[in-house]
Amino acid sequence: MFQFILSLINRLHAKQVPAAGIGLFRILYGLVTLQEVLFLIYFNHLIFDPIPFIDVEFPTIPFFLGLWALVAFFVVIGYRYRFSLLANYLFWIVFVNFTPMQRDFDGGFDMFMTGANFFLLFMPGDRAFAIDALRHKLGTPFRPYRSYPEPRVSSLTYYLPVLICLGFLYFDSAIHKLFAEHWRNGLGSWLPSTQPYYVSALDMSFLLNQEYLVKAFGYTIIVFQFTFLFFFNRRCLRPLYLFIGIGLHLGITLSLNIYPFGLGMLSFYTLLVPFSWWRRIGRFFTAREPSLTVFYDQLCPLCNRTVLVLNHFDIFRRIDFKSAQEYAGQYSALRALSQEELLKDLYALDRENRLYAGLDTYIRILIEMRYPALLGLMLKVPGIYHLAARKYRQIADTRARVTCTEACVISTPLPDRTFYHQIFEEYAGQKPKAFARKLAKVLVAIVLLQLNSTIHYGFLYRFKWNKPESPVLAAMVKGSNELISVSQLFLGIAPHALYLHDHFAGYDRIIGITYTDAEGREHWLPFVNEQGRLLAPNWGRVHSMWANIAVTPTINETRLKKFIMKVTAFWGQKIGLPLDRTVFHLKMKKIDAPTEWVEDQLHKNFASPWFEIGTARWNNGVISIEMPDNINEL
């Protein structure tokens, strides 16, 4: 087995492939992280305050969340790659494990995002669609901008993250699904989609009411997850796994209110796109011939920098840059210009042979690039145009007096300090056999950590073997728990027993909150609506707090009261209610979570009537909640 792993590592490492997929993966991962941080900023008082807005225990939380948002933005644009990924990794670990997010506001995908970030540290995510790629060009001796080769990287950097972060996750999840009755009945995707707390604003009942279709979906998911680990990299099967996986996680994103989980998983599928497809996608989106030709002074350092920057952001390749000294004489529209005039400004010609100069050239470049066209149109607005033209003239006249006569060396070379370069290029190039052996050992260790988690939660915990009487077995179980704590903290290896039978068994009632305004009219708090759905933006980890911790098959009265306090204080302040003069009403209604298919179950749960079970009142920052002692028997 070890020799097989060694040969696989050597074969995959020797194969060089385009870096575009990893660059796009970094962007999508960064965007998912950024939206989650913005979500935390919006709900910071609900999540981090002991009593929202009243007892603020962590006043610096918004500052650190702001820093995290900045770091996530750096990840998106690929700036200071190693620093931004390291900082982002530490933020995930600290916030997920050492704040109230750890227990009360589990996002359902936090461990997954931590593990993905760990692998991104060792991936060449700065080679494509990254500011660092531009910085590297600007930090090396200038050469013609078209002579920079397409970035190519080891195929290992595609294969390993998919194998571990998706393959192991799916296999672990599939094992847990076998113990869930509704999954065995083919209703794994159907049951959560019929529960008011779990559905999004989209009504998917037209699909849920097709019994054989939803069962086909359920069984396909189980087969897909069991086999993904072994067959995803087979060339003939890769597109099949790609499209099924995208369909699965797109369905989660659209139909359930745990969209961050769906988006996080979707981002990984950029690594599963066949390499030949990236070349075809590139040819499809890039222009067959440029729509604008720009002429620049090749002996001007600032002009060379400008060309590199503009070409880097011209992702559709619609602009062609040519040396004014070499090519201007070939175009009739430029022959009337003297050499001094030609080198004083940036000139451009479009397909209709129209000539642009100075600021107009930059405006035309932005418009032709397409995606920054709005910025180009804004520069044409009177007032803005004149200010920009004056600034351009100052820069252009200054640079005209500074030229270089040889290779236009811009600065000293920018060293590549990424872990990918140090390990996969430098170390692997110097000691290929040692590299393969050490990487194989690391992979075996990760496999053992994943097996430990799967066996512990999939079998020992489920069959109550995790509390053995034998001292030897007890020590082994304790050691297993310690390993899980470490692997979960740093690698995100955790059980993926999501939405199983033991989660929904007995889930036959839900709770909502209304309030009475000054005129005596009753309104629903913007949290749970009259159907029982959790309203946006109370999705993701706020949904998890209410639907998975506060309201469960067996309700813990202490926890329920804690979250009633948090929700009423937070939303009461958000919508401007005078807390001390507002009465909140606790509503309950009966629902069903059947393990057999029932027609129109979603709307039946929506239509179930509410009845009042208690009230909540605030007085000088203290809440008083009246509710039955036997709430689990209602």
From TrEMBL:
GO terms for cellular component: endomembrane system. It is a multi-pass membrane protein. It comes from the Bacteria. Residues 14-277 form the HTTM-like domain. The chain crosses the membrane at residues 24-44, 56-77, 83-101, 153-171, 212-232, 239-255. It is found in: Endomembrane system. GO terms for molecular function: protein-disulfide reductase activity. InterPro entries: DCC1-like, HTTM-like, Sporulation_signal_mat. Keywords: Membrane, Transmembrane, Transmembrane helix. This is HTTM-like domain-containing protein.
